[in-house]
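Listing 4. Sequential folding, example run.
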Amino acid sequence: MSKVLPPPGLPRRLATQSALLGIGGGTFLTGSVVFFTLYVGLSPIQVGLGFSLAGLVGLVGSLPLGHLADRIGGRRAWVLGALGGAATFAAYPFTDGFWMFLVLITIEATADTFANAGRMVYMAAAVRREERVRTMAFARAYLNVGFTVGSGLGAAALALDSRAGLLVLVLANAAGLALNALFVARMPAQPSLRTTRERQPSPWGVLRDHPYTALASLFGVLWLNATLFGEVVPLWAITMTDAPKPLLGVLFAINTVMAVALQVRATRGADSLTGSTRLLRWAALASVAACPVVALSGATHGWATIALLAFAIVLLTATELWMSGAQWYLQTEIPPAEQRGAYLGASKSVGGVTKMLGPASLTFLAIHTGGWGWWLIAGIFVVAWAAARPIVAWVERTPRNGLTEPVPSI
């Protein structure tokens, strides 16, 4: 049962919270675009602009909101963010026009960014170091279980083909977030952190930690695999191979099953800089290998094409699982304890640049070159593989102001 259930106590409560959050989020995400177009009456372009604005809020707001989570405490920030999200989703059915939609989606993105910052700050402070990465792995696995259940509920609501069904999508997520806030508020208080400096350091000073920003950039490059999985490979499969369109559902199912079944196991070794560096390099190599596999699928037929695309998804999912474990350790152990939120925010902001540029550039390289661009994409991940060890070593040997405890040595 230890492979299925997290350890009792706080780790199990955090996993349960993740599952509840995933159910609400999965229910809404299944039909979010349908809700905004058919229920609210927005055009697809207006919805796309709103989602882009939400992404920009996350990119710009991660650092200051992470710093605020440091100041007021992770649990409090998490609760406030969840309540803000619940209130926003409850207001979505009353949206009257495009500008009100932009205001609400900005508030929702801000609340979500704040809640995520609070969650990381709380988990890093409240969970013992030796259990931290494993606990985060269980939380991610249970989140995926919740999303799977929520996606089924969302599909059922869409099947009603009515305004009432669309309303269920939004109100289920609002209720889930409200329940989530109550659940988090009842969790044990995190230990207080005493800064070693007389006054609270400026959050913008994090950006002057050049080794850490280099590490954040490395995270951003490696997370391009998510763009490959979610956007580029499906588009390639539809336009450049003879794979049947229903195969896309199977490919996404492979990712979900692997994430649920293997996330905890994939974090083994992510309890030191040596182990985390090794996982980063494995993650990079998995994406390197996936690129020529996808390219080859454009020259095959029938079951061979299906097998190659499935193998590529396995490799890209392996990147996701190894990356997650390494990133959880590095993002919680490297920053000074009293600045974890600010460091996490800086990492999201720096890495968000590649997330913003990735879809267009990777789609061009993969598809508009006819396929040879996959080798250039593989080259990007080769560079990440080569850079991982020196970047982590640079991070390790660089002192940080306010550091309350040393980073475990390589």
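-- end of first protein; second protein begins --
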Amino acid sequence: MLVGLNDPRLPRDADVAIAGLGPVGATAALALARAGLRVTVFEEAARETAAGRDVAESRASTFHPPTLEILDDLGVAAELHEVGLVSDTYQYRDRTDGLIAHFDLKAISADTRFPYRLQSEQQNLVEIITARLAAMPNVHVVHGARVRSAGQPDGAGVALTVEPAGPAAAGGDGPGPLACRAGWAIAADGAHSALRAELGIAFTGMTYPERFLVVSTTDDFETLIPGIASVNYIADPDEWLVLLRTPLHWRALFPVPEGETDEAALDPAAIQRRMQGVVELDRDYAITHARIYRVHQRVAERFRVGRVLLAGDSAHINNPLGGLGMNSGIHDAAAAAAAIIAAEGGDTGPVDAYEAARRAVAHDYVRVVTHENWESLQEEDLAERRGKADDMRRAAADPALARAHLLRSSMLAARVHEPEHAGSQG
């Protein structure tokens, strides 16, 4: 059920407390609740604010095959498909040379029951799962609440301190801090995780020199560029880009160089110049949304401290090239929930294995793949660019190579992570 921080129906104890109700926290909550555990979820943001919906416009929107399998097992994939767009092909292109390689995910039909990507804003999944959680008596969802600490004084549970967040907290009119206890806690509170910081876990990595500009338009690139796929990675040494289709619009992602200010990049005229550089129109593009954000590659040094498990952006963040961030976070959520369920049943093996397994995927697979995607799109050396393009053409033309490539880019290979997967294209 949905409750407030000062609601008398909010219990002061739970089997599992979750910080964060994004796609990661929501997935973990549903998996745990379906197993019969008592779950409390604390989400900092107020529910369904206009600002939240606006920010969601430029967040993750790609669900890969193994992620759809997880969501299907949780009973929410069908509903997500109702507000999604099936994308069973994608392309690598070059601004100068045009189409380089076309991949069809039907080549992995024998490997997954979802041989495609589903394009749907991450907020759609959160809303679908929140509706399920609201109807479950063993779940309490609290919006406008921030988990500030998670101590483990006796090793047998987690002592949480939760405080109000948002307008009520700023005005001093809301309830004071709340103390509660849980058998386990999952930190799914994002890249600026308060729990990760409170636990003293280092978040090592790097920040990219350029920022990323995301522009949404209702103009149809399938009409403007005949033969284009729903997802396209377009290489160029001066200004690479990604073009992908979502149910409501087309989204273009551009790099913003260090010398260009956010204000200059977001100027409507500057946005039009970038968009006209993709396909020139005799009018302005119809722009519905534009946002700039910094991009990082960071992995937490620890994914578990006692009875607190980190998942999603609180544990790892990466550039979005390949759509691996949210997906790997949802895989974290499923693994964390399964580990806690097993531990509650007396088997602590999965909890003990969680950190090594999930950190290996984040550090050795997702981090490396997404960075190599970034390097490939902006390669300046002409011989290197042509060599990479030839390799991609060969992969697309050979059924065995195409399947291997698709298993890696779809994250199916990451289910049983091996070192050689790290160098693959995403």
